[in-house]
Design the sequence.
């Protein structure tokens, strides 16, 4: 069951036997795609950073996490932390539109979606308009580590359980930081409580 305001989330448990330790969001997404049934401990990545890092003490936090089910040009994928559709290349962040679908609040050191929660049944969407100039992008980038780049008239945010986009021209797509190719049509459905993790 997804988290509700004022409710406790997760529980402290002893380290389960047969625990599979995973170091990155993309690796967890592949485990989810395979339908792995072993208990999973996530020790690195943007999802762990969103959750405040590994648990101190002898036990682990056992947490249900939403999963992003993705259909990109008919191909099926899974993401656990985020996906980004933008121009390719080294300067893709600096020109053109950007769409970020966030289950975690972070991409690396950037607090892209400060209100995102990985178990609320919604994805936080950040859409950057094509007309956002280089100077404004630089200013937003300087504020991304603290999540204070909003509000901005060329950056829209929303929250969805299901979303769909069409890109013309096509954009490059990254799932949990891993580039998967070019995409023209993109659909995302949030699967509430899609996986149980330990941190």
Sequence:
């Amino acid at each position: 069951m997804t988290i509700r305001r004022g409710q406790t989330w997760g529980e402290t448990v002893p380290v389960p036997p047969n625990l599979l330790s995973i170091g990155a969001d993309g690796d967890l997404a592949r485990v989810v795609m395979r339908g792995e049934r072993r208990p999973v401990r996530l020790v690195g990545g943007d999802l762990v950073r969103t959750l405040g890092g590994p648990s101190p003490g002898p036990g682990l936090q056992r947490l249900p996490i939403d999963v992003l089910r993705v259909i990109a040009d008919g191909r099926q994928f899974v993401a656990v932390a985020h996906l980004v559709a933008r121009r390719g290349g080294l300067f893709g962040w600096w020109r053109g539109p950007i769409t970020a679908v966030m289950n975690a609040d972070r991409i690396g050191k950037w607090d892209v979606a400060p209100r995102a929660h990985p178990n609320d049944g919604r994805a936080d969407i950040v859409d950057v308009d094509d007309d956002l100039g280089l100077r404004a992008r630089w200013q937003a980038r300087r504020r991304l580590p603290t999540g204070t780049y909003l509000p901005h008239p060329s950056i829209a945010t929303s929250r969805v359980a299901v979303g769909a986009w069409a890109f013309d021209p096509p954009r490059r797509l990254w799932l949990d930081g891993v580039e998967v190719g070019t995409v023209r049509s993109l659909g995302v459905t949030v699967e509430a409580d899609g996986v149980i993790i330990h941190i």
Q: What stands out?
A: The chain has two domains: 11-65, 70-193.
